[in-house]
Amino acid sequence: MNAVVAILGKKALGRLKDKDVDTNADNPYMEKVPVTNQRGEIVKYKERERPIPEGLSANDAAILKKVRRKAYKWDMSFRMCCFRTRFGWSFIIGLLPLIGDFADLLIGLYIVKSCNKIDGGLPKTISGRMMWNILLDFGIGLVPFVGDLADALYRANTRNAWLLDAYLTEKANALKAGKVQDPDEGTTIIVPPELRTGT
After folding, report:
1. Has the keyword S-adenosyl-L-methionine been applied to this entry (predicted)?
2. Bridge partners, 42 (sequence order)
3. pTM, rounded to two decimals
């Protein structure tokens, strides 16, 4: 089972590199979908909640939805006057010297802890990357004001939501196929029954 989880983690990291997603700027919770007229021309875009990958257990689906929503709230929930970029509550509390940065760190750690509650847990590669994002975000935020702006643009929670999304998408694909193939070695492993709880 550990081999399957490790391969899924490796595939998820590769998926994020290949995927046309900016893990820093794209909203992990909502997506824009085109609205067309009768001639098939796009007339506008509307936002809807991102769909959950099919084949996940109820627990994994609920955790992904929760992490997406919290990442959006803390990193991208509003715009500020003359800035084109979105900010979240993480930026606001980060403006409080030291106390705000520690509060932001604790919130990030809470979100990572939520991610680890998925069925079978997270692979060490994904969990380690999430922790790195949180610690880097914390270090950047320690620099007064300029660091807080850079911290708001780095968006560690959003990056971590996309990591979880990529991992659970790979997991859902493996559950459907009943096997997983290592991208480096080319070996194929049958998905064990304890991981198949999502089917």
Report:
1. no
2. 36
3. 0.84
